[in-house]
């Protein structure tokens, strides 16, 4: 019971305090407001326009990048690198030329093949010229037989067939460039 009485006393003191505070705050006089209004100064704030800009933010961190895939590239022939078309770290695509190789023995074989091709071409032109003359002469009856005309034509085409078989492979000059597989 004693606790109950002390609680009532605390409650009544609390209520009286709240009522006294409320009454004192509501007792504003007009004199104080007028003096207070004259002393209030307006603070000025600096204003600015918002604009959209790209923010560049660079972060430099130490690190090491490892390749996802490592490929060893070797040329099909031996020789000296004449021109290197890529550098370490360069992105490459399939079929891109990486290096040009100077191979003296291949160059000599190219020259040899070219001279053989020129000789075969000259032989063919001579044979073709001979065939045309025989064909022209065969128009007059009794001068050239049909079998002689056929032999000239056959010789002409034999030269063409032999030249194609003996000719240098076209991929030989392509081997001078190392291409990414």
Question: Any overview of this molecule?
Answer:
By secondary structure, the protein is mainly α. The protein has a three-stranded antiparallel beta sheet with strand order 1-2-3. It has helices spanning 2-26, 30-39, 104-138, 146-166, 171-174, and strands at 80-84, 97-102, 177-179. It has a domain at 80-179. The longest helix is centred in the C-terminal third of the chain and has 35 residues, at 104-138. Helix 3 packs antiparallel against helix 4 (146-166).
Give me the secondary-structure topology:
Layout: H1 2-26, H2 30-39, E1 80-84, E2 97-102, H3 104-138, H4 146-166, H5 171-174, E3 177-179
Antiparallel strand pairs: 1-2, 2-3
Helix pairs in contact: 3-4
- Order the strands across the largest sheet as they lie in space: 1-2-3
| Cα distance spanning the termini | 100 Å
Beta-strand content bin: 5-15%
Gyration radius, rounded: 52 Å
Strands, count: 3
Spell out the helices and strands N to C.
HHEEHHHE
Q: Which stretches are low in confidence, meaning pLDDT under 50 for 5 or more residues running?
A: none
Mean pLDDT: 78
The general outline is rod-shaped
Major sheet: 3 strands, antiparallel
- The oligomeric state of the chains shown is single chain
Give the helix/strand class. Answer: mainly alpha
Summarize the amount of helix as a percent range: 40-55%
How many separate helices?
A: 5
Key structural traits:
single chain; 181 residues; mainly alpha
Describe what is shown at a glance.
The protein is mainly α. It is built from 5 helices and 3 strands; from the N terminus they run H-H-E-E-H-H-H-E.
């Amino acid at each position: 019971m004693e606790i109950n009485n002390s609680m009532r006393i605390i409650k009544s003191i609390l209520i009286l305090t709240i009522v006294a505070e409320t009454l004192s705050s509501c007792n504003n006089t007009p004199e104080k407001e007028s003096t207070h209004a004259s002393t209030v100064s307006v603070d000025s704030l600096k204003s600015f326009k918002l604009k959209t800009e790209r923010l560049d933010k660079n972060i430099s961190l130490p690190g090491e990048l490892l390749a996802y895939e490592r490929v060893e590239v070797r040329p099909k022939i031996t020789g000296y690198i004449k021109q290197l078309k890529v550098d370490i770290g360069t992105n490459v695509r399939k079929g891109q030329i990486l290096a040009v190789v100077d191979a003296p023995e291949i160059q000599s074989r190219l020259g040899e093949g070219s001279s053989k091709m020129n000789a075969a071409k000259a032989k063919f032109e001579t044979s073709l010229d001979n065939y045309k003359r025989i064909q022209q002469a065969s128009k007059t009856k009794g001068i050239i037989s049909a079998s002689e005309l056929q032999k000239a034509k056959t010789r002409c085409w034999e030269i063409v067939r032999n030249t194609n078989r003996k000719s240098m492979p076209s991929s030989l000059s392509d081997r001078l460039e190392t291409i990414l597989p």
